[in-house]
Design a protein that fits this description.
- The complex is a heterodimer of chains A (109) and B (801).
- Chain A is mainly β.
- Chain A has one domain: 3-layer Sandwich (Rieske Iron-sulfur Protein), CATH 2.102.10.10.
- Chain A has one helix and eleven strands; from the N terminus they run βββββββββββα.
- The radius of gyration of chain A is 13 Å and the shape is globular.
- Chain B has 801 residues and is an alpha/beta fold.
- Chain B contains 24 helices and 41 strands.
- In chain B, the strands form twelve sheets. In chain B, strands 3-2-1-7-19 form a five-stranded parallel sheet.
- In chain B, α1 runs parallel beside α8.
- Classes of the chains: A mainly beta (109), B alpha/beta (801).
- Chains A and B meet through β1, β2 and β5 of A and loops of B.
Chain lengths: 109, 801
């Protein structure tokens, strides 16, 4: 696993998502006030841009068809379907948001 | 025929009469009530105060019921004396009424503590419908109210006043709220929830005097502190009304003493309800009192047999969003196990008291969803030995209908009205019931305190052929209020941001349903002078474009009245080329739609177009569709283009509950299809018809005529009046065609075009204020609300591959 410096935390407004392209993958980053959460920016349903969804607690609601997705686990909570999006670990260092990418991904790339 | 005289027209007395009637007795019944209302549900007064119910919604038995059953009803008469020798009661109106049997159901009165200055104006109690009305009248925005007493009634009164706009402080003598029903920890949990709602709570505070000259102006405490108050509500408990018992010469302790058959010490005198003492206990809650009524009805009609047994006390706080339930003996004792669960950040506190594997008491705060189960354990004295590991959380069940199936038919579901599961099922079958309100009117189940509503729903779901969930009026699960309620709250509490509303009145979190609705609400109520929170808006309203299925956006510039120019069209064509627009489409309402634009290109597209936003992506003012009117058309009778463009200018950039489409047609041929628009102007020779509530979408509806006027200016004003009225009164996502049907065009006319001059002026001035604060959303291209509003963020370090 490797940490990548993404952007200054100021660039992520409270309770909104922003899309960042990391190693070719679109990642949706959310500022929940007390923490940052990151998931793949594509709804497992029809690929809707999750970064544009409304945040409800630790969930995001896809703007296309209202799929409800947990930002903590990546699971789809509504409707009840057994699919998930990938989640990414985040941390903040010196006011900069960092996201972890898997080594496997690097090797595969 | 024997004369039965009932003193008291409250819940217990009348419920007992209902039971008596079931025996078809040979009795002539007269009921005296000192209030001037027919029998109503006193438990629901808190809901009336809080604006959740209307006063006439809580009537239990209307006039017809008394008539149909041959009952003489005398209202507004207080019985002041009893002459037992001649068997007469004397009323405060000088009347004398004979009786053979006397039923005392006088209930109780507020306990008034010793405080100086109680006679001042503005000092009220909270006990009956008149009190409630007086409180509603006085609890206007900004009024400082002090409620003395932090018990059930005091807290419900406080919240009701606060919802109506008052600044409320609850003063409680002891250190812990609801000290009769809760323990200290429970009281603390309750206190913090109540404070969270915006009600101030002072505990351990004794009130010494009420200050003021004529009208109350303040409260002085024993510790010397004082505080301002325009309104003081005394809610320090109740006392049984026993005077008539004394006058009748029957045994009286704290209440009128009765035995298991509900007989007093005199065979001609009976008593029921809060004025009664049985086995040393006086009851103030509805369920046992109705049970008393049943027993007494048997005794009184010569069917003596049923006995009243000591009842487990149970109480539920009726404040929306504050769940508090308490039952049985809640004090800890030696030999009693205490099982506890608490989560301070969720505000959940549960405590069960268990002795010899049997539940003896319980407290639930923050989550009372299991109250029914615990009540069953308490009443049934269920052996819990095998369930000890699952006391606080029910064992997970695979079969969701099992809890309904497990309950025996004889078990009471509705404790207030005494309806068993068997009776409910029988009624569902016999009457073909499918909805909760049908069940309510057929069986009266769930019409009391409402705590069994959930169980009744589940029974219906399990049994009814075509079960229908009733449309809930609440906005969503995050805040359990109707939109109408919320509008009042937002206004009276001066809430200007979505988060504030969610924190105080909801779950603090919000969802995709309530956030946009509340965003609209604060905008319209404060005429644009609110705290805008873009995170609560749908993506379309964050970037002012319509999101498409592939995540790109569509752009629709404003072309007022559908009138464009070669230059404008050239710019549109250039933009389409430059940004590789996937499709240029002329829409159904004379608009040009540029499809397939990337979010990050939006500001540049808008700048290159040099045209304002057509608001095609939002719940707002769309373009005004026009015909060519008098300018070119040989049939035209009115200037449709000029009037349409002016209408659009006056309303553009404003937001509405749902999209608002408009049309202006220059003659009755109606080429602009104005009669199927939300607002339409149809020109005629020498006049305009202003029509509203039309639709040609999922629904097709011909608009209703609002008014016919002579000049274009009058037509525009009528349209603006309706427009603002719709903005202020419709629910979010309610189109004008639903709104007009729900409100009725006559009411709308009365409150807009036929309204008083001041009312019309006020509507227009609020519209004007909103308009002044509004602006073309596409100007955010130069002044984004956040630096990354339209930006795709690039990682600082390019990842090494």
């Amino acid at each position: 696993m490797r940490w990548i410096q993404v952007s200054k935390t100021d660039n992520f407004p409270l309770k909104e998502g922003r899309c960042v392209t990391i190693e070719g993958e679109d990642v949706a980053v959310f500022n929940l006030g007390d923490r940052f959460l990151a998931v793949d920016n594509a709804c497992p349903h029809r690929g809707g841009p999750l970064c544009d969804g409304i945040v409800s607690g630790d969930m995001v609601i896809c703007p296309l068809h209202n799929y409800k997705i947990s930002l903590e686990t990546g699971e789809v909570k509504k409707p009840d379907v057994p699919v998930r999006v990938q989640t990414y670990e985040t941390r903040v260092e010196n006011g900069v948001l960092m996201i972890a990418v898997e080594m496997e991904q690097e090797i595969a790339a | 025929m024997e004369q039965l005289l009932v003193v008291g027209n409250g819940m217990a007395g009348v419920a007992c009469v209902e039971q008596i009637l079931k025996y078809s007795p040979d009795l002539e019944i007269t009921v005296f009530g000192d209030e001037t209302h027919v029998n109503y549900n006193r438990i629901m007064l808190s809901s009336v105060l809080a604006g959740e119910k209307d006063a006439d919604e809580i009537t239990l038995n209307g006039w017809e019921w008394y008539q149909e059953n041959g009952i003489q009803l005398r209202l507004g008469v207080r019985i002041v004396d009893i002459d037992m020798r001649n068997r007469l009661v004397k009323g405060d109106d000088g009347s004398q009424t004979p009786f053979d049997k006397l039923l005392i159901a006088t209930g109780s009165s507020p306990f008034i503590p010793r405080i100086e200055g109680l006679d001042k104006d503005g000092v009220l109690t909270f006990r009956n419908l008149d009190d409630t009305r007086a409180l509603i009248e006085r609890a206007t925005t900004g009024v400082r109210a002090v409620v003395i007493g932090g018990g059930l009634l005091g807290l419900e009164a406080a919240r009701g006043l606060q919802v109506r706009g008052a600044e409320v402080t609850v003063v409680h003598l002891l250190d812990s709220l609801m000290n009769v029903q809760l323990d200290d920890s429970g009281g603390q949990y309750l206190k913090s929830r109540i404070e969270q709602l915006g009600v101030r709570v002072l505990t351990g505070k004794s009130t010494k005097a009420l200050l003021g000259n004529g009208h109350v102006e303040g409260v002085c405490f024993e510790d010397g502190e004082t505080m301002h108050a325009d309104l003081v509500v005394i809610a320090a408990g109740i006392r049984p009304n026993v005077e008539l018992g004394r006058k009748a010469g029957v045994a009286v302790n704290r209440g009128i003493v009765v035995n298991d058959y509900m007989e007093t010490s005199d065979p001609r005198v009976f008593a029921v309800g809060e004025c009664v003492e049985h086995n040393g206990q006086v009851y103030g809650l509805v369920a046992p009192l109705l049970e008393q009524g049943k027993v007494l009805a048997a005794t009184l009609t010569g069917n003596r047999g049923p006995q009243f047994a000591t009842w487990t006390p149970a109480a539920k706080l009726k404040i929306m969003g504050v769940e508090v339930f308490s039952a049985g003996e809640v004090r800890e004792k030696v030999g009693v196990d205490v099982v506890r669960y608490e989560d301070p950040s969720l505000g959940i506190y549960k405590k069960l008291l268990i002795q010899d594997h049997k539940l003896t008491g319980c407290i639930l705060i923050g989550d009372a969803s299991d109250s029914h189960r615990y009540m069953e354990w308490l009443r049934g004295q269920t052996d819990l030995q095998v369930r000890r590991r699952n006391l606080l959380f029910p064992e997970p069940v695979a079969d969701k209908g099992i809890d309904v199936a497990e309950i025996p038919d004889s078990e009471t579901v509705c404790g207030c009205m005494g309806v068993t599961k068997g009776a409910i099922i029988a009624s569902i079958h016999a009457n073909g019931l499918n909805t909760l309100s049908q069940l309510k009117s057929a069986t009266r189940a769930s019409t009391g305190c409402g705590s069994c509503t959930e169980m009744c729903q589940r029974l219906l779901k399990a049994v009814a052929r075509d079960f229908e969930e009733e449309k809930k009026k609440v906005l969503c699960g995050c805040l359990l209020f109707s939109q109408e309620n919320l509008r009042e709250i937002v206004q009276s509490q001066k809430l200007k941001s979505v988060q504030e509303i969610l924190d105080i009145y909801g779950n603090g979190v919000g969802c995709e349903i309530c956030k946009p609705a509340l965003s609209y609400m604060v905008d319209v109520i404060w005429c644009g002078d609110h705290q805008e929170d873009r995170s609560a808006r749908f993506i379309n309203d964050r970037v002012h474009a319509n999101i498409q299925r592939d995540g790109t956006f569509s752009v629709v510039p404003r072309i007022r009245g559908g009138v464009t120019s070669p230059n404008e069209l050239r710019r549109i064509a250039d933009v389409a080329d430059k940004y590789s627009v996937k499709m240029v489409k002329i829409t159904g309402s004379q608009r040009i739609d540029l499809l397939g634009i990337k979010k990050s290109d939006l500001p540049k597209v808008w700048a290159d177009l040099g045209m304002p936003s057509g608001q095609a992506y939002t719940k707002g003012v769309r373009m005004v569709k026009t015909c060519v009117g008098t300018e070119f058309c040989r049939y035209g009778t009115q200037d449709a283009i000029g009037t349409g463009v002016e209408l659009e200018r006056r309303l553009e950039n404003l937001y509405t509950p749902h999209k608002t489409k408009m049309g202006v047609a220059g003659c009755p041929r109606n080429c602009a299809e104005a009669t199927v628009k939300d607002i339409g102007l149809v020109g005629q020779e020498g006049s305009w018809q202003v029509v509203v509530g039309g639709a040609a979408g999922k629904s097709v509806r011909k608009a209703d005529l609002l008014i016919t006027v002579q000049t274009s200016e009058e037509a525009l004003e009528a349209a603006m009046l309706f427009f603002q009225y719709y903005r202020e009164n419709a629910n979010y996502l309610e189109r004008t065609y639903d709104f007009v049907e729900r409100f009725g065009i006559e009411k709308i006319r009365k409150e807009t075009v036929y309204g008083k001059k001041e009312e019309k002026k006020a509507l227009l001035s609020r519209l004007q204020k909103s308009k002044l604060l509004s602006k073309d959303a596409w100007l955010e291209r130069d002044q984004p609300v956040h630096p990354t509003q339209f930006v795709q963020i690039e990682p600082m370090e390019a990842a090494l591959v």
